[in-house]
Amino acid sequence: MFESIFQNIRNSKPIVHCITNFVTVNDCANIILAGGGSPTMAHHKDEVEEITQNSQSLVLNMGNVHEVSSMILAGEKSNSLKHPVVLDPVGIGASKLRNETFINLSENIKFSVIRGNISEIKAIANGKGITKGVDANEKDKVTEENLKETVEMAKMMSKKLGSIIAISGSIDIVSDKEKTYIIRNGHPIMAKITGTGCMSTALIGTFCGANKDNILEATACAVATMGISGDIAFKKMKIFEGGTMMFRMFLIDSISNMTLDIINGGINIEEI
Amino acid sequence: MFESIFQNIRNSKPIVHCITNFVTVNDCANIILAGGGSPTMAHHKDEVEEITQNSQSLVLNMGNVHEVSSMILAGEKSNSLKHPVVLDPVGIGASKLRNETFINLSENIKFSVIRGNISEIKAIANGKGITKGVDANEKDKVTEENLKETVEMAKMMSKKLGSIIAISGSIDIVSDKEKTYIIRNGHPIMAKITGTGCMSTALIGTFCGANKDNILEATACAVATMGISGDIAFKKMKIFEGGTMMFRMFLIDSISNMTLDIINGGINIEEI
Amino acid sequence: MFESIFQNIRNSKPIVHCITNFVTVNDCANIILAGGGSPTMAHHKDEVEEITQNSQSLVLNMGNVHEVSSMILAGEKSNSLKHPVVLDPVGIGASKLRNETFINLSENIKFSVIRGNISEIKAIANGKGITKGVDANEKDKVTEENLKETVEMAKMMSKKLGSIIAISGSIDIVSDKEKTYIIRNGHPIMAKITGTGCMSTALIGTFCGANKDNILEATACAVATMGISGDIAFKKMKIFEGGTMMFRMFLIDSISNMTLDIINGGINIEEI
């Protein structure tokens, strides 16, 4: 599965257009480069359609609630060009504005993939929010016990919204309406840096930009690559007795040094 | 003093709402996480009241002079909820706009803590600016010789403004109208990276968010934690023969690895 | 050549005013500090003239197409004060908005230096764009084969625009209408992190701010310093088996640790 997906990225070096928040925008640009893509973070409404036209995928991050009209312009253009469009519904459930923004975006744009933490995905599923800030609520956490019902929720959402659903956490879920990948890579320290979620979404955009005909597997690969890099980065951080910022460095470093062999050696993925 | 303050952060994991500048926003979010809090950097005027309502403290950073109306909405809401509100008057004295912004904010919001470098604090005290850019002016520097008069100035400001005054520099001062902590930790290299001040303010917001009934000591602890981390980070940087960016990494790393033992072993604090 | 340029930076510690994009703004501020300057990133139209007045140079980065009116206010003020003004035409050629923004800026501001990748510089030379995203187009690449004609293009542009032209790539070119420096330092990995170009421009602003009477050599020095730091950073990254983020850290670290001896030992510069 991974071989052709990686090869397509190397061959096409996809340009990934991101309209994203200003907190983690630098990390997102760097992880796209590390993953083999070329980032463009243009968000002015007078140029986003042109920029998207020359890109291979579009990443919309709701952390930037100031640029909704740009997101809609870029999203509609991407849809018309059949570019993959990846949504990160950052903080949905945390404010009425975020909930309305999601509705506004989803009424105008067809998303190829929606990636969020479990609280964000539940906020979409329930049509109401239980998110605290931008981090997942502890009581929503995906465990082996509630995994089956969470997968069912993801499948139903995918059927209803027509998007692949990616849920990030200690257990990652990537699902369309029929097929689901369960990925058990990554480390809890990933929640101790800002931007892990945003970066994961940006990497999905990179993988999908080069694999338009295989969005489900491209998304699963991106999520697994992120998790495996988290595993490697934590070990390296321990060797040098570092903390969360050294972890972030090694996380993106590991993406930039990723090979098929490292993936195959580290991946813990299950298809159900 | 430190034990209960740290324990309260670990127990409550405070959500810290920051309306801050786009230069150092990523560093601020990461230091809040490293310090044991959960950051939310929402700044759209249509959601800041809701976001603040679900947070435990508010950090306002005047480096973002575009979002003053959002700051006032969030500040008024925080005041009504008795959340700690921490102000960083970045660049006050450097332009009329900054001076007017400070007046505008202080007429509408009661600040629990105001933290700045000595030039910024003097600009407030004098009602006129002598700041050059965003860095402290060399001739304003706090020394052992002018320490006593600087402490008196801080006490008077605290009495007048009803806020704790925190002055950052080679000697740090944290004072209310009666009691003052003098902290002699940290390293001059802290002035060679952008964001040390902003990060210090964000960390104060984290410590205060979990210690609402003890703002003075929480602020002193945050300032000391920052200084001790600077000491550790400089030593680590030297081992690896790095420069300013490695220093920044180890600065936040040291916050993320901080323990009560490290604090007690490294702190140089005096109460007067 | 380098000795006096470096000495002037150490002596004057120039304040560098940047109006720049939010993707790489933190890196730009940090490289200015590492290079010996003091950054101020103020971009509100109501304060940029005052801020520029108290600065020694101005850096305008077209990645921020939202702040063109602020750029013009600051640029006109800088011109009137004879401060060096450095333009980074990020993404020119990628959209009509960028092309119009360049025209708008160049009709109102006299630039001391314009620094871009070869695709951006060609877009200016040709009056039409061939840029893909923000990275240089592979087919535009400067090689030993097309070096002579590229230098001629730079000289002609310099004559026409009255600005020094700096072209970044595997071979760097810094030229006025008569004299050209060819610099063969740096490493291809510099294209694998975001912000190398923006940082290079910010460093040029720092060097020029302290060397107003010698802009050509100051620009060449800044470009060479960037390249030599890239060489050093790549070697260090290899020692620690890191990736692109460790490279970025060591890149800015090397600027912060730069000495005249390191420069003289590493530089590969040719004057034609």
Which features would summarize this protein structure in a list?
homotrimer, 272 residues, alpha/beta
What features would you describe in this structure?
3 copies of one chain form a homotrimer. By secondary structure, chain A is α/β, with parallel strands linked by helices. Chain A has one domain: UDP-N-acetylmuramoyl-L-alanine:D-glutamate ligase (3-Layer(aba) Sandwich), CATH 3.40.1190. In chain A, 50% of the residues lie in helices and 14% in strands. Chain A is built from 11 helices and 9 strands. Chain A has helices at 2-12, 25-34, 48-53, 68-81, 96-108, 118-126, 147-161, 196-209, 215-239, 244-256, 260-266; strands spanning 15-19, 38-40, 57-61, 85-88, 113-117, 164-168, 172-175, 180-183, 269-271. A 9-stranded mixed β-sheet of chain A has the order 2-1-3-4-5-6-7-8-9, with helices on both faces. In chain A, helix 2 packs across helix 8 (196-209) and helix 2 packs parallel to helix 10 (244-256). Chain A is globular, with a radius of gyration of 17 Å. The relative contact order of chain A is 0.15. The model of chain A has no long low-confidence stretch (mean pLDDT 95). Chain A binds chain C through residues 15, 22, 25-26, 29-30, 33-34, 38-42, 44, 46-47, 50-51, 54-55, 248-250, 252-257, and chain C through 21-24, 26-27, 65-66, 91, 94-98, 132-135, 192-195, 242-246, 248-249. Chains A, B, C: Its cofactor is Mg(2+).
User: What top-tier CATH class of chain A fits best?
Assistant: Alpha Beta
Oligomer: homotrimer
CATH topology assignment of chain A: UDP-N-acetylmuramoyl-L-alanine:D-glutamate ligase
Give the terminus-to-terminus CA distance of chain A.
15 Å
Q: Structural class, judged by helices and strands of chain A? A: alpha/beta
Q: What is the overall number of helices of chain A?
A: 11
Mean pLDDT of chain A: 95
Envelope shape of chain A: globular
Task: Tell how many strands the DSSP assignment of chain A holds.
Answer: 9
The gyration radius over C-alpha positions of chain A equals: 17 Å
Name the biggest interface.
Answer: A-B, 29 and 29 residues
Q: Let me know the largest β-sheet of chain A.
A: 9 strands, mixed
Strand order, main sheet of chain A: write it out. Answer: 2-1-3-4-5-6-7-8-9
